[in-house]
Amino acid sequence: MTEPVVTDLNPIPAPANRIPTPTSPAPDIVRCAYMELIVTDLAASRAFYVDVLDLVVTEEDDEAVYLRSFEEFIHHNIVLRKGPVAAVAAFSYRVRTPEDLDRAVAFYEELGCRVERNPEGYTRGIGDSVRVEDPLGFPYEFFHEVEHVERLAWRYDLQTPGCLVRLDHFNQVTPDVPRAVAYMEDLGFRVTEDIQDAEGTTYAAWMRRKPTVHDTAMTGGDGPRMHHVAFATHEKHNIIAICDKLGALRLSDRIERGPGRHGVSNAFYLYLRDPDGHRIEIYTQDYWTGDPDNPVVTWDVHDNQRRDWWGNPVVPSWYTEASLVLDLDGQPKPLVSRTDDSEMEVTIGADGFSYTRTGDQEQGFKLGHTL
User: Is residue 81 within 8 Å of 92, Cβ to Cβ?
Assistant: First the structure.
């Protein structure tokens, strides 16, 4: 495997310990909709997400802040909730009909997962909801009923140069990527891109419900953890404006990686860390994937351009650090170690090998020495 390989079929090897496929139909998921983040200093987090990133406050109190992007019409895309440990309380998906909540209950009960349902919803602005501890250990939520709020897409008087327009995706860290992919396919997701090596190890996979590159990605590592939550801008100049604003505010050290362009997804990106270390991606310009025969792109793990189409190598913290996730009692989930090869270990440092041009031994500036 030397260049991205385009196929019509899912190229990820079948897992050795597959999660059983339920006989109950999966809920019909429309899109990723919001994330509930636990933060240790609510005022500091509010200042970062509202005053720096310009997300819109829908509602707030002493315990939580409900935020949305400018094109959103549901109550919120992110909840900042005060708590003792920085973590993720819910990866939340909207489903197509109220009956899909019944399907979610049956689907996960058949898998033997812990399932809870709250007809009043778990957060403001969201109605009848189902929360589960899924087979990978993540807290998933499904809902249909929402409170509508003003969509601010036309309020150009309020929009800033770095305007965040919608929630785009989640990224999850899990030890066994093929096992995660097979389970997510049972849930109705489809692979759009992935990273493998010649020996068949899968390092990451991008999976979607809406017709973009992904609603979530499965990244190989010790998990369950949340790698990042991503918001979209309209154009890449919006991302540059965010960088300029961070510099002007003497917050440039919040920038962990980028700006740059990914090979995987083709998107222009920026990675930031909030006051608790939660990773936020600002993302734009990926591509349409909604056709039924949309091809899958597989990248070689040693291809320097898979993660960065141009620019700098990936910083080690991007591979090693991620947010804890909580169980339904609000306790951090214990981590399971990855036993497959680590993407960082096989591509970065003295023992790693990467290339920019196939078969070329020249190591240009992009390869770098990061460790």
Answer: no
Q: Which residues pair with residue 57 across a beta bridge?
A: 67
The whole-model pTM stands at 0.95
Q: Do residues 256 and 315 touch, judged by C-beta distance below 8 A?
A: yes
Residue 371 predicted with pLDDT over 50: no
Task: Say if residues 246 and 54 touch (Cβ distance below 8 Å).
Answer: no
Give pLDDT tens digits for 16-27.
899 999 999 999
Phi and psi torsions of 308, nearest 5°: -130, 115
What is the secondary structure of 39-55 as a DSSP string? Answer: ES-HHHHHIIIIIIT-P
Q: b/e per residue, 5-37, with b = 16+ CB within 10 A?
A: eeeeebbbeebeeebeebebebbbbbbbbbbbb
User: Quick check: 358 pLDDT over 50?
Assistant: yes
Q: Mean pLDDT, to the nearest integer, of 72-89?
A: 98
Please state the φ and ψ torsions of residue 320, each to the nearest 5 degrees: -100, -25
Element containing residue 244 per DSSP (H, E): helix 236-248
Kind and range of the H or E run holding 318: helix 316-320
Query: Which tokens go with 37?
Result: 């983040």
**How would you classify the pairing of strands 202-208 and 190-196?**
antiparallel
